[in-house]
Amino acid sequence: TRASEWFDIDVPMTGIRSTSVVYEANEAVMREPAALFCGEDENGCHLEVYPRSNGEVYLCGIGGSVYVDEKRLLPGGDCDRSDKIVEDPSRVAAAMRSFSGMSKSIGGGDKQPHTTQACMRPCAPDAIPILGPVDGIEGAYMATAHNCWGILWSPVTGEIITQLITRGKSDINIAPFSPTRFMKSRT
């Protein structure tokens, strides 16, 4: 990873490429916003439906996520830049089929999502976020590998990094998340 290059330490990382779609704003969503989490259906989707404050509806949990090894994420790899991370059209179609059965007013009929996209979710090999000071480099910190939970863990991650920078320690025990867990023993 780039962090490995910057800090001259081993920071193993894989990615999970996932497709998502966004539907246009809808007045009903703004009146009664509610997230919805579904089990897997006949289209291979386990939709997560998130209303946005502007009335848009964001769908993920579309299935077909692809695990990407570290070599592909490194400079020169086929997944080393965000513009190379593209949605899977077959998963967009599956999500549209699944969602149209749930919401005729938003996703039914010939309604199309206004945005189709993909993201790369960063993951450490032990599936635990990497969070804390970089050993041996004063003032360097890492906060990555949150996988799909980054949006939920971002407030506490920001608080932890702020405390580390301003006070030199965190109120929360972050030892299990330490980047040093990947460093080889120096004995």
UniProtKB/TrEMBL annotation:
A GO cellular component entry from the record: cytoplasm
Sections of the chain in a coiled coil: none
InterPro entries xref list: FAD-dep_OxRdtase, FAD/NAD-bd_sf
Residues covered by the FAD dependent oxidoreductase domain: 8-164
Pfam annotation, one family: DAO
Membrane-crossing residue ranges in chain numbering: none
Gene3D superfamilies the UniProt entry points to: FAD/NAD(P)-binding domain (3.50.50.60)
UniProt name for this protein: FAD dependent oxidoreductase domain-containing protein
Classification lineage: Eukaryota, Viridiplantae, Chlorophyta, Mamiellophyceae, Mamiellales
